[in-house]
Amino acid sequence: MPEAFVDVITITPPARPFKASPRIAGSKSITNRALPLAAMANGTSTLTGVLFADDTLRMIESLQKLGFALTVDRSGQSISIEGLGGKIPNASAELFCGNSGTTIRFLAALCAAAEGQYVLDGVERMRQRPIGELVEALRAIGAAADYVGQSGYPPVRVGGGAAGGTCRFSASQSSQYISAILMAAPLARNAVNVELIAPVTSEPYVRMTLAMMQQFGVSTQTARTADNSAANRVIHIPNGGGYKARQYAIEPDASNASYFLAAAAICPGSQVTIHGLGRDSLQGDVLFADVLRQMGANMMMESDTIHLGGGRNLTGITVNMNGIPDMVQTLAVVALFAQGPTRIFNVGNLRVKETDRLAALEKELTKLGAVVSTTVDSIVIDPPDKPHGARISTYDDHRMAMAFAVAATRIAGIEIENPQCAAKTYPEFFKDFQACITARSS
Questions:
Q1: Inter-residue contact 220 to 213 (CB < 8 Å)
Q2: pLDDT above 70 covers what percent of the chain?
Q3: Do the beta carbons of residue 274 and residue 252 sit within 8 Å?
């Protein structure tokens, strides 16, 4: 990110193919799960590879307001947290979560399941992002949760402890609600059953949460529901087994790696290698590399490394991105340089993210010459013969800013407004991205 505030940034397209191995900072999704899990554990945990960005800083500040002792080493990308075995030190607090969905949702559940009274709020956009599904689930397991303002939206008031029991999610708007309940469940006085009725949006993030809970010492069991449907299941979290402190290494952010992979995919002859991500990653967004392969990029994935090179021609595809919706903006930009249209479907939850991402994509891709149409849960991009430059609005959405930086590797004259919004998850993005696309093989 630029050192001083600027309202627009221009990226110069590379003159030649590039070859780079960018170092990607720690995963936001893993960082914002590891922090509260460590705070709920019994003993001191040390997290390494921590991401320090707006979203994770909101989580760190909120945990400190709750009274937890954190030793923060930003230069060393590590944090030590003294967990109190499911107890929150301060009996009350007001937590400002900014526009961080993981912070407000995960902490609302954890605070509701613990003793005390807590209010969680955020920026104006956060007050437009629904949270009613989580509130209803908390009430179902015996926790106190209510709205301070408009029903169904933040701010929320929670606390008093959770009895346990069963809650159900059907066609959930966000996997974060499910993850929030799962992480809070071990704090309940009795066992918790989480019933998932119908396929889950962003399913890989639920799998990530369950894997991390196990890494911090909490085992769960999953079984089919009575109707024996493949999509319907019950996750059982027994009581009596709390989180355990540990040393925990956070892997690089797969979502943020996507912009470097996409840049290589659309620039023939270019190559990017991402270390620390691969087949064994906790993050579902590593699957984006395979989407690029389907379009024609040259890709090889190892257990902890992804190699991707730009092929001569990319082809438009039809793809269900419900499992990795944060990759839709990146894919939509890549579609500008493919032969034939690209259709992305089953991503209706993008309309309640940092902005209405489908509407934003339609408007901004059209500026570059594409013909774009959207439905309530899909987008079709018909690429232009020759995309042209334009000034791109980012809607204070970090992923809009970073995705359209990819377009600038092939289109001269793209100006990206409010580049600082990338600081939500990647403060150094524009500096690192420019260094990547100008790197040369040795």
A1: yes
A2: 96
A3: yes
Q: At residue 414, what are phi and psi to the nearest 5 degrees?
A: -85, 125
Bond before 155 cis per omega within 30 degrees: yes
Q: How far apart are CA 41 and CA 215, in angstroms?
A: 11
At position 338, the amino acid (one-letter code) is A
Burial 399-410 (b: 16+ CB within 10 A, else e): bbbbbbbbbbbb
Q: Please, are residues 366 and 372 in contact by the beta-carbon 8 Å criterion?
A: yes
Please name each of the domains of the chain with its CATH number.
Answer: 8-26+251-437 (3.65.10.10), 28-235 (3.65.10.10)
Number of Cβ within 10 Å of residue 215's Cβ equals: 16
Under 8 Å CB-to-CB from 401, ≥6 apart: which residues? 394, 416, 418, 419, 421, 422, 429
pTM of the model: 0.91
DSSP 343: E
Question: Helices 175-184 and 203-215: crossing angle, nearest 10°?
Answer: 20
Say if residues 286 and 302 touch (Cβ distance below 8 Å).
no
5 pLDDT higher than 60: no
Residues carrying an active site annotation: 326
Residue 427: helix, strand or coil by DSSP? coil
Main-chain dihedrals φ then ψ at residue 327, nearest 5 degrees: -90, 0
